[in-house]
Amino acid sequence: MLVTLEQAEKLILEGKVLHIAADESLLNMLPKGNWIAGTTPYFITEQGGVTCKDRLFVNELDCAVGHKISVYDKDSIFNITKDAYPNGLSFLVMPFASEVAVYFAKEAPNSGDLIMNPTVGWISGYDLAAGGSAKVFDGSTGLSYEDKAVALHICLPDDKIANLGIVNIFSINEGDTKIEFAEDTLSVSKCLINGEEMYLSDYILENKIDTQLPLVADYNGSYINVSIKSVSAENKTVELYAPVFAGKTYRFSSPVSDYAASFAERLKEHEDLKPVFSCNCILNYLYGKLEGKATPPFAGPVTFGEIAYQLLNQTLVYAVVADK
Amino acid sequence: MDLDLAFKKLIMKQANYQSGNLGLNLLISRLQSRYASKPTQEELENSLQEMRAFFAKYDSILQKDIEMLKKL
Fold first, then answer.
1. Do A110 and B21 touch (CB under 8 A)?
2. Mutate to test the interface with A, among B19, B24, B26, B28 (most CBs of A within 10 A)
3. Angle at CA A304, nearest 5°, toward A301 and A307?
4. For position B42, what pLDDT does the model report?
5. Do B33 and A247 touch (CB under 8 A)?
6. With contact defined as beta carbons under 8 Å apart, do B44 and B9 qualify?
7. Which bin fits A247, alpha (ψ -120 to 50), beta or left (φ > 0)?
8. Residue B32 burial (C-beta neighbours within 10 Å; 0-12, 13-18, 19+)
9. Residues of chain B neighbouring A118 (CB-CB closer than 8 A)
10. A163, A219, A323 member nearest B29 (Cβ)
């Protein structure tokens, strides 16, 4: 929920275990305590999407029976699974474009330990109109970082278990053009288009592909997006917000004419959920004009990348704590 | 059907099962790719161990999946 600075301070001083998202100016004023945070001025609340620098979005993690906060860099990020509680949930926040986020994005799909130790989170950002830097905060020390990840590991009671899910409004058809890549990369030049080598940039431009639509890969029935950051005809490169992986088959998503309506339709199957955390992508917020539009039962920060076991794009991610 | 048999069929892509559980789908996808690139008995056993561990931990929320996998 969105709270005032005073309300956030009160929760911290009460010793609550908190995940927080807010503008950097507010996070810098918080007292030390049992919290982690990332920067973003965008949120989807129960009343709808909003850009806000005088409120903080706070997830109060009352389900936790223990907690610890860790800070990681590129070399240590996969210690996150060793530091996780055997029956727990880990919240991970990483700064946009940081080395640790890039490394995590490329390597996370290879980690079996991440599947066994549910990790949910997001990539922190900044006000796109005003500029700024993406940061994360370790509330236990009061320190903030542009180049490190912070994690809040919580321990759950024996009769509870964490589960992660996504809501992805993008879909593909089997008959759509297949796109494959020779390497795991965030920057693509050549690829295979239906088996024939071609520059992806040429394919996009010649076919007038709407680059607001993500590439989508089918992971055994779960659709995972990769969003387009930029296309350069001159350099014949396409930059991505998440890596594509060799061995996966991608297709451009089918068009979505109304993001809010698409979310509303998909969210009907989730209406009974009580998520302890959720976030939604800044690209959905911008392309889908989600300002003023709600996505019940989900509310949370609008993020520059989402994490549910691995990095995702243009996706709503959530965590629930279920009875065993 | 013993779940190990269902797990083997999934890993070796001899059967298809799509779950509503994101973690399970990501696990199946990863194990299928790994086995396809190295189709050895050792790799199959390693993959089976991962499936068993996942189902042991998440047994309580995978009951529907377990029932469906028994029919594979």
1. no
2. B26
3. 80
4. 97
5. yes
6. no
7. left
8. middle
9. 23
10. A219
Provide the whole-model pTM. Answer: 0.97
Query: What phi and psi, each to the nearest 5 degrees, are found at residue A242?
Result: -145, 160
| pLDDT tens digits, A241-292 | 999 999 999 999 999 989 888 988 999 999 999 999 999 999 999 999 999 9
Q: What are the tens digits of pLDDT across the range A217-246? A: 999 999 999 999 999 999 999 999 999 999
**pLDDT tens, position by position, A57-105:** 999 999 999 999 999 999 999 999 999 999 999 999 999 999 999 999 9
**Longest Cα–Cα distance in chain A:** 61
Nearest CA in chain B to A269: B20
Question: Does A116 contact B32 at a Cβ distance shorter than 8 Å?
Answer: no
Residues of A in contact with B18 (CB under 8 A): 220-221
Say yes or no: A131 contacts chain B, CB-CB below 8 A: no
Q: What is the domain extent for residue B17?
A: 4-69
ipTM above 0.95, yes or no: yes
If one counts the domains in chain B, the total is 1
The tokens 């680059």 sit on which residue? Answer: A211
**Interchain proximity B26–A112, CB inside 8 Å:** no
**Closest chain B residue to A160 measured between Cα atoms?**
B60
Tokens 């290879």 belong to: A110
